[in-house]
Amino acid sequence: MANLVLVVAAALIDAQGRILIAQRPVGKRMAGLWEFPGGKVEPGERPDAALIRELKEELDLDVARDDLEPYAFASHAYADFHLLMPLWVIRRWKREPVALEHEALAWVLPGKLKDYAMPPADEVLVKRLMERPQ
């Protein structure tokens, strides 16, 4: 059985209804693909706490737990691991996002998400955001 990897992600939505996506850096698995910000849940860490930590580390954002809105989750079997990824919608945060760990950031309208190459696990989330944007 493949290892289960739990990661968390956020669809940060600005006042214009655009969603923030981030480009994976060179040297990382799936480099160059676009993703929703987030990352791995550490052992013993709550998923919501992991997301708040990851957003601070990756984007220098401060997000309050009360601003996390559960939205959807993805479950995807890669060749060597199975990924489970809850996705939250976030509409409030402090400061402007800065690409501290990504090649680039982009604010994208839901209908344009399909124009960006993303990891297979993100496809179900992209489809849902395009069909029923928050």
Plain-language structure description:
By secondary structure, the chain is an alpha+beta fold. It has one domain: Nucleoside Triphosphate Pyrophosphohydrolase (Alpha-Beta Complex). The protein has helices spanning 47-59, 123-131; strands spanning 3-12, 19-23, 34-35, 38-40, 68-77, 81-90, 104-108. It has a 4-stranded mixed β-sheet with strand order 4-1-6-5, with helices on both faces. A 3-stranded antiparallel β-sheet has the order 3-2-7, with no helix packed on it. Strand 5 (68-77) and strand 6 form a beta hairpin.
For the structure shown, list the relevant keywords:
single chain, 134 residues, alpha+beta, Nucleoside Triphosphate Pyrophosphohydrolase, 4-stranded mixed sheet, 34% strand
Blueprint (SSEs and pairs):
Layout: E1 3-12, E2 19-23, E3 34-35, E4 38-40, H1 47-59, E5 68-77, E6 81-90, E7 104-108, H2 123-131
Parallel strand pairs: 1-6
Antiparallel strand pairs: 1-4, 2-3, 2-7, 5-6
Short description, anyone?
This protein has 134 residues and is an alpha+beta fold. The chain has helices at 47-59, 123-131; strands at 3-12, 19-23, 34-35, 38-40, 68-77, 81-90, 104-108. The relative contact order is 0.27.
